[in-house]
Amino acid sequence: MPRLPANKLSDMGYIWVVADKLFRLGARPPVVRSLCPIGKKTAIRLYQTIYQQSPKQGLLPYDPYWIVRSSVINIHASIFLGLFQDFTRQQNQDGCPAETFIAAYELYCRVVAHNPHPSKLEAGVTQAILLDINRAWQLSGQLRAGEIGLVICGKCQARHVVLTKMPKPFQQCPICEVWADKSGRRRWVTVNARKIT
Q1: What is the pLDDT of residues 89-139, one digit of tens each?
Q2: Same domain, 114 and 22
């Protein structure tokens, strides 16, 4: 998304363009309202205009342990949050937070869509995108709050996401600290004791 001058960031037309982009990426109204200065009714009306139906009701996806459900999920979260952190650091004071979020999420989608060897988990979803934009927004909030963090693996030097309150033995690298069972499913090293010999 092209960066606009600071004096344009408050322009309502620009805000609507950003909100429209978020909705088309699959964001729900609460996510759009958190990233764009628009009201609840405005967000719902814009959603209805785009999709010709009312937005989905209910809670947004939230699972504080989602990133450790599997190593593949952790890799996806690590790709997005790594991009989000890098873009946030490069953003100047006048930048728009929604731009940073959108740029990171769109680049994440492009990266994972070109995986030549998707796992079984990735092969079961469209374009191998395991990270929905609404969950991506939730993860970015957890990163800002310090609930999760990015660390560098001492073995393979990959940057990956961890739960900051988990003990170090459970802050495992999703690339080199996993093993595959007979069915090919990747498992964390900490569950190695369950491996059938």
Answers
A1: 987 655 578 999 999 999 999 999 998 888 888 888 888 899 999 999 999
A2: no
Can you list the alpha helix ranges (DSSP code H) found in 114-132? 120-123
Domain enclosing residue 43, as ranges: 6-51
User: Where would I find the H helices in the chain?
Assistant: 12-24, 29-35, 40-51, 71-90, 97-113, 120-123, 133-145
Question: Could you tell me if residue 21 is left (phi over 0), alpha (psi between -120 and 50 degrees) or otherwise beta?
Answer: alpha
43 and 70 belong to one structural domain: no
The residue length of the chain stands at 197
Are both 21 and 85 inside the same structural domain? Answer: no
Tokens coding 197 = 């010999």
pLDDT in tens, 71-92: 999 999 999 999 999 999 987 6
